[in-house]
Every structure is written in C-alpha cells, then in structure tokens.
Hints:
2 domains; nine-stranded mixed β-sheet
Amino acid sequence: MDYFRYQNGQLYCEGVPAERIAAEVGTPAYVYSKATLLHHYRQVAEAFAPIHATICYSIKSNGNINLLKVLAAEGCGFDVTSGGELYRALQAGGEAQKIIYAGMGKTDEEIRHAIEVGIAAFNIESEAEIENIDRIAGQMGKTAVGAIRVNPDVDPKTHIKTTTGKKETKFGVDIERAERVFEQYRSLKNLRIGGIHLHIGSPVYEIQPYIDAVKKATDLIDRLTARGHKIEWLDLGGGFAVNYERPGQAHPVTEHAKALVPMLKDKPYRIALEPGRYISGNSGILLTRVLYRKMGGQKKFVIIDAGMNDLIRPTLYESYHHIWPVSPDAANVPPQRDKAFEPRNGEIVDVVGPVCESGDYLAQNRPLPVTKRGDLLAVFTAGAYGFAMSSNYNNRPRPPEILVDGDNYTIIRRRETFEDLVGPERVVK
Length: 429
Ligand code: LLP
C-alpha cells in the first residue's frame, strides 16, 4: 500500500504531481510520502498492540532525520547500529530509553557514548562483546543493559547477502551455546543481561521462518527461566518483506502478527520488533529521467540519470524494483497502482545508469512502455536501503530527498554539490 497514484494520466505522490517535483528539484531525486510512512508504522504498531510490542524502527533502512521525527512523534523507538545512527536518533528527538543498539563491531567509544546517553539496551553479538561492555560500564561506574543475540539456525529463504539467522553467518551466538553463555555471565557487575534478540534476515517473504525462530527462542527462554535467569524481553528483529515486484507479493504485517501474537500473548516478558523496510520501503520512490537510448547487439538499453551509486540494490542483490513512466501514454496508465499491469505496445529493455560498470543497472530484460529522452521514470519501493546505501562513486553528487505531506513538499536533504564532494579533502601543497 502506498500513496503514489496515477491521477489525470500521471503519477502523484499524495497530492503532488511527480513531474512538478522533478521540474523544480531536478533528477535523480528520492521522493517520500509521509502518509505512507505513517500508514506502515501504524499498521505494525496496531498489529502487535495485543502484546504491547515496542516498535523500534531500524534506522539503517532510511535515516533521514525528518522521517525519524515523524516516527518519534508517533511514539516509535529506534534500532541503531552505529554511533552515527544513535546521533541521528537523538537529533530527531528519539527517547534514549526507546533506543536499542545493535551491531557486530561496536567500538569502545560507541559503547561509552551509548551508556552515557542512557539507551534502553545493547543487542550483544558475542562473549567478547559481553566482557567489553561490562568492562566499559564498570569504568564509568554504571550498569549497562543488554540482550544476547541468538542465532536460531532458521533459513529465512532470502538473498545470501541478507541471510543472518542461519548457522555460520557472522551473527549472534549459536542457540545451543546460549544457555552456557547465560550461565557464564550470570552475575556480571556492570552488565545486566535481560533479553534475547533475534534477526533472521531481510527481506523475509514467508511467515514460517518467523514461527520457527520464535518457537526456538521461547523454548530457550523457558529453559533459561527454569535455571533461574530472569528474561525480561524478547526482541524479534526486523525483516518483514514488502511488494517490490507485484502487488500481493509480500504478506501484510497483519498476517505475520496473526501467526506470532498467539505464540507470545501470555508470556511474562516484553516483546520488541525492529522493522525497517516494512515502514520505509513503500514510502519512497526514486525519480529519474531518460537520457539516451541505444542498442547493444540485440539488446535495447534505456540510459537514465540515476545509477548504481544512487540505488545499489538491483546489482548487489539482484533485487527487482518496479519501474514505470510518470506520464505514460494513455494505454499505459495503470488503472490502479495496487493491481499488476503489463505494458501495452511495450518493449524489453535494460534500464542502465551513467556509472562506468557493467553492473550499473536498475533493471534487466524488463518489459516497459516505450520511453524516449526526457521521459521521467519512477523507481518504486526505493524508500528502504535506497538513499541509505547511496554513494559518491564516479564522483556523482548524491540526490536530494523530498518529503511530501498532502499537497506540499519539502526538500529534507538538498542535492549534494561538487564542493561537497571535495569538501573533506585537504589539498597538500
Ligand atoms: N534488525 C537487525 C538486527 C538488522 O540487521 C536489520 C537489517 C533490521 C533489524 C531491519 O531489517 P528490515 O526490517 O529493514 O528488513 N541492504 C539490504 C538489507 C540489509 C538488512 C540489514 N539488517 C537490502 O537492501 O535489502
């Protein structure tokens, strides 16, 4: 579900024509819909309200401070994974007591700062990290709070690069070892280990891997409780998938909740969730213009002004993003955005960017309406891990981010300039 709709033959973001934004701010540009962001946050919060789950939006998916502010005002907490993300969360007015700090390689400085500002808990990845957090909290004369991230050895059936909850990924403590770890660190002086954390992968299209992981985690908590450990919360991580390719591809979160809420309803511990993509994914599109067309062998290429530096997901994960003209010819105006729609009199093309790599594409062998130089295209479901993973590769200034709210839009991050590109460099004489 989103608020990007075709009206009068052209794409609107809420009440604003996408053509207008592109004409005024240029392309490429990320455009976000506030109503879509809120809709998905509220959908998650309501689905898990029967178990009073704490929702901690995963900042890594899209950390623009203005989006975080919208979510913080709704009472949303945050999942951060670096000192930079913690900084953003606090800048956005996020409450420290609703911030969970995860991450494989937390530095001493990051740990110290997180304790200082009073985050709710660390999600801890290893024995070595447990000892380090305890040591640092001790030096500070404080008590830190943490959850052990367990690796439940469940296959989330997603891309290998975003699979995390299977044995022999770098994440978490093997679930069989978890009891021993709890025993070993039962009475640390400066770290209270009170939670279990999971994150099986991202995006996860099926419900069963969550059910399997939750079953394993709740069984583990039962065994730990029997041994006298007090487990105060279970954090299920994130990973809920969204519709990248076609409507109905991903389960709405309500379906996940239908399966998971009954499993967790009468538990004496609190539940947390860390969705990122589910909240930000459908909230954003990338607007880009066609620069050229060319043939290469039998292949047709549509060359656009956005590249792999702006949206790396297609080339990094072979991921599919729906692409469609903003102002298509009459036959190609989708009657409803939430129904699959095939191009009429279309063509099969590779949609490629300006970066000097063969891997620089946003779509391959894609049926699309015929486009020409100057046409504006929308790359959908680009709100999560789009701008967040963008770079300056090929010395391309990163695109602006625009937030639409009803009939108005605001530039919430300006387009980078050439000066920004060289700014941190020191030219030595
Ligand atoms: N919690 C933890 C511990 C995570 O590692 C992640 C994502 C999340 C929550 C949020 O997952 P989400 O709800 O957004 O799926 N760059 C990849 C995705 C990497 C996900 C990394 N961790 C992509 O573009 O698909």
